[in-house]
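Structure ticket #2291
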Amino acid sequence: VTANPTIFEKAIAGSDDYDETLRSLTARDRHADPKALYEALAIEDIRRAADTLQRVYEHTSGADGFVSLEVAPALAHDTDGTIAEARRLWQTVRRSNLMIKVPATVEGLPAIEQLIADGINVNVTLMFSLRHYEAVAAAYLHGLGRAKTPQSVASVASFFVSRVDAAVDRALEDLNSPSARPLLGKTAVANAKRAYRRYRELFHGRDFAALAARGARPQRVLWASTSTKNPAYSNVKYVEELIGPETVNTMPPATLSAFRDHGQPRLTLEEGLDEADQHIEALSELGIDLESIADRLLVNGVQQFADSFTSLMHTLGRKRANLQHEQSTSATYRLGEMQNAVRTRLANWQVRRVGRRIWDRDPTVWGDAETPELTDRLGWLDLPEKTHEELSELRSVGEAIRENGITNIVLVGMGGSSLAPEVFAQALGSAPGYPTLTMLDSTHPDAVIQAVREVDAQHTLVIVSSKSGTTLETLSLFKTFWKRIDEAVSQPGRHFVAITDPGTPLEHLAHDRQFRRVFRAPPDVGGRYSALSVFGVVPASLIGADVHGLIDRAWTMAEASSFCIGDEANPSLVLGATLGELTLAGRDKVTFLTTPRLAAFPAWLEQLIAESTGKHNIGIIPVADEAIDAPDRYASDRFFVAVTLDEEPRAELDRALDALAAAGHPVMHTRLHDVVDLGQEMFRWELAVAAAGAVLGINPFDQPDVQLAKDLARNAMRGGDQGLESEVGETLHIASGTGLRSHLNGWLESANERDYIAIQAYLAPGSEMTKRLQMLRHRLREKRALATTVGYGPRFLHSTGQLHKGGPNTGLFLQLVDEPSQDLAVPETDYTFGTLIRAQALGDYSALSQRERRVLRVNLGKDPASAITQLTDALDS
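Resolution: structure written out below.
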């Protein structure tokens, strides 16, 4: 078992398991140093783990059953300091099956030799090349030669695997050479096999025989970093291909579960050794220096551990302060009469072990074991931990983009591809000197023309983001930007990066056009659950945002919500039970309130909730950006959720929440101490919405009604301009003024109590347009006292579109279209953006009509802003 500061930090911050010990320690010393607190907690855990494994240690005569504790990362380049620290920890823990973890730095090697000579077990970590391994093995052998009782000392040499492939693959991709592509994904295994061959030579040859006769043990090779980073590769690649005698594979739980499920165990380490040598030679011929890459990985690895230790110290300091003042960082609920229903649900889940089953990827939490999109859509549970290992590389990519003179980044993508980056861009913002990030998820000709007109081709990077790699809107926008940049620069591909699943048409397109980079996303993570994957963190990294903080907080919430936490104490399941039970009780309008800096967060939540729960005539209706009103103006169908940032004033919002709760409306309030706490809230809500699906009896990971509107839009496009309007019934043309009031009244009179109104604006987004839509929205709410939502098309089709067509038939839909003053052809195609957005609006209208939804379609003409005001005024009559 290995431990490190990163894991300790998430466990300490994400649960109350350590609180009792921390209270005791701080009671004795209110100003206890965080490092001393960490050491006390770590040693307690290490002793317990060592005692648990003592039986294994004794049964194998000291060959197995070890627990590792590392020296402080700050000592990685301090030989004497490492020796002194290791000796002190060895004497303090006092367990024969302890291993002290020491990095394989130049300064660490003599420390390793001395510790082995002292009879202290050592786990040597952070080796990335054959040269690293040989130096470590030499230090071990020299130490054994000096040891008084070599038979009593044990050691492993931890060889890091997947990080090697990640680094070498990037170098190969940068070459963009036909001879480089066959080498992708093969370096790490080839590297490891060569190290294992050297292990066999050193410890099963003549040189070790004398030490073996004295009872000395070989220093076993340990494979570390064995989770697959590239989703294009098998998730058991670094297990199946590294099996051999006298080795150890340290697998994270997800990799262990995957291998248990579909791994093929056979002896593989000594196969293909000639091919391994040829592979390394081929890299050298291409100019790729593996040793240089390995040295850089060692430096980065030491820095990552140091950063984690610094973060741990900060976490412990904050936790100490919270415990001393008994402050809680969790959400607060005021549920009134619904509290008992939520408690009953959580107790039921505890008996049925629902939390554990979710982490076990048990599809029967939601449906049948073989239900599509259940068995392969739960990869988001491990995203915080997996993404954490990619952060240093993402940081370096961001620095390179900045140094290359990029001042503006445009992301083209829809739904899950654009909503999380929008949150990060607005809430965290760009770091000094880093580019700005804007999203384009509209196909309205006016919006596209404006965005393209503003492009400074020399200093712009375009992120093309699509999970499937086939999203029509995204590819249309890509082709438009490609044409613009291709006309201005000699290497247009250097101004594009792609984010997509492995093997998609977008990935092939990116290779063909020599994009700067392709970031591959895990296929087992759906779009609305992808905020903490490359879809969210790459754009945030490129603007210098604190992605490390985001992922750290998300990982903390994952630990707080893990399988070993009781369902009744699990913050994510508490929210999930609340959402589910309130919806069953008729309070299905989750209304979000935030402080200004978090204003974009509800739009992300809107997609997560609407697309996950709106199906089979069931659903939770998210309400974002609706102005707050007096408590008696709301029906008993609301659940108010406030998310606030401590640094922003919120006194007025607090008073409003108090009034709502006093009036009997259920209220939840989450306070974020820091803006990067958004990471923890994203994970909390992902797991909560998935759990709410279990309450509602639906599969939260499919979207059965989305395809219908897409198919109808394609049919409309094939019909050409003349056939478009014939696809729908009567359209109210606001320019004629005929029947405006009567149509509005007839549409509104169909409303029932607990319905909601959705404005679907197939218009060019803009601040003035949004202002007028909000005025219309609030006038509609005043008329009928119903919840209201607003979405720009086609953006909302990828967020709330599923809810509109598959959720409860309680929506009144107002579809607004206009007549753009200009159009723009989509390069490399036979259609225009005007044709595309008209077809999308008509397809959506047809889909709503087929689902027997109440929809009114209004053509606002050539001056949509003024027409919206006219429409708003008509409601006063």
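Closing remark: The first strand starts at residue 67 and ends at 70.
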